[in-house]
Design goal:
Layout: H1 7-24, H2 42-54, H3 73-83, H4 89-92, H5 99-109, H6 112-123, E1 129-132, E2 150-154, E3 157-168, E4 175-181, E5 190-196, E6 202-207, E7 219-229, E8 234-235, H7 241-277, E9 279-280, E10 283-284, H8 289-317, H9 323-353, H10 359-366, H11 376-390
Parallel strand pairs: 1-4
Antiparallel strand pairs: 2-3, 3-7, 4-5, 5-8, 6-7, 9-10
The structure holds flavin-adenine dinucleotide.
Length: about 400
Amino acid sequence: MDFAISPELERARQKVRTLVHDEIIPLESDPANYDSHGNINHDALGRMRARAKQEQLWSPQMPKERGGLGWGPVGMSVLYEEMNHSIFGPVSFNCAAPDDGNMYVLNKLGTEEQKSCWLDPIIDGKVRSAFVMTEPHPGGGSDPGMMMTRATRENGKWVVRGHKWYITGAEEAEHFILMARTGDGARDGLTAFLFHRDEPGWEITRRIGIMGPEEHGGHCELVFDGLTLDDDRVLMGEGKGLKVTQVRLGLARLTHCMRWLGLARRCVQIASDYAAERKGFGIKLADRESIQIKLGKAAMDIDMGRLLVMRAAWKLEQGSKARQDISMAKIHVSETLNRVASDMIQICGAKGYSTDTVLEWVYRYARQALLVDGATEVHQMVINRFLQAEHGDFWQWGKGHD
Ligand SMILES: Cc1cc2nc3c(=O)[nH]c(=O)nc-3n(C[C@H](O)[C@H](O)[C@H](O)COP(=O)(O)OP(=O)(O)OC[C@H]3O[C@@H](n4cnc5c(N)ncnc54)[C@H](O)[C@@H]3O)c2cc1C
């Protein structure tokens, strides 16, 4: 068992760290670098994306032959955590959701023609993308089996009608991956489609307000009323939609965790710096046991999250789906992020609640981590399913857990 990372990965980590600390973090303190939804604005983003390309740190998760750096889940775990020391980090390297998960699934499951048309422009940073799945009641949310948006065969084409919401990035995306029902089977009733923003037969009816800062393009409600697609827009094959979803969400959940660990570490850094300087009742905050306990617990929880993420990443590289491991990481890291953001605000007092640090930004953002890509309870259900099915084997070391 070796917990060390390769010299090559360590060099890449150092390079990411330098760009994040020297050039991206400094942008956070100037309100002029934000858009009206609390994210980095397009001018500043364009500059940082150009810098990431110049430093040869662009799209590290994509194959070298498509313009990336060829890092798999283990390398991504190290690099994404480092990137999200800044709230503007991942998007500057083309490693933010939802593009990150969309690139992964297109690269894994697309035909060569689909990759050159739908994937390469996202890798190059020319277009943004969205993943369209969740629906209002009585449609599919936590349970994709309830999906109601339908694609029916009409005159040799697929025609889509239905209603979706909370679609991240939809207002700015050009490339969309859409999940729709094409049959009634529990496992083969869904199909994944690709469509372009400019195609008729669908519209965004509203951008839904949320409690936290927003990804570029917001979280939107979409209505489909006759979007018409040829067969070459089917990803992986008719009836394979559930499989597409599982492939996409598996790694996407883990990459969320990788990024959230970086955010949590940044919060601890801010609070540690404050506690080291601030005095009260005759001593420094950092010398108080109650503060030390909070910081120590945060560090331990973050490191436990890193171990869970790295184990899942390693298993993915061994060819396992690592479903139980990813569910555990998702629950633990999302809860850690929420707790750490709150505790670090507490340590910083009023300053923690102010906009003078990014703590309040992270605190508002963190709440969605307990919901997106599977609510906590759904992941607990998944873990328990493995526990009940495998009995004692559940605890076996080095097991695949498919
Ligand atoms: C910020 C944000 C971004 C999002 N981006 C996208 C996107 O880009 N594309 C997309 O398709 N969707 C997106 N979503 C939607 C997200 O995937 C769904 O919110 C999630 O799948 C849960 O579905 P739901 O909201 O319909 O909750 P529901 O299915 O209605 O569940 C509500 C609650 O019930 C509980 N619950 C559900 N199932 C169980 C169970 N089995 N056992 C116990 N309790 C349970 C959980 O507490 C859950 O939070 C986004 C959501 C948010 C908040």
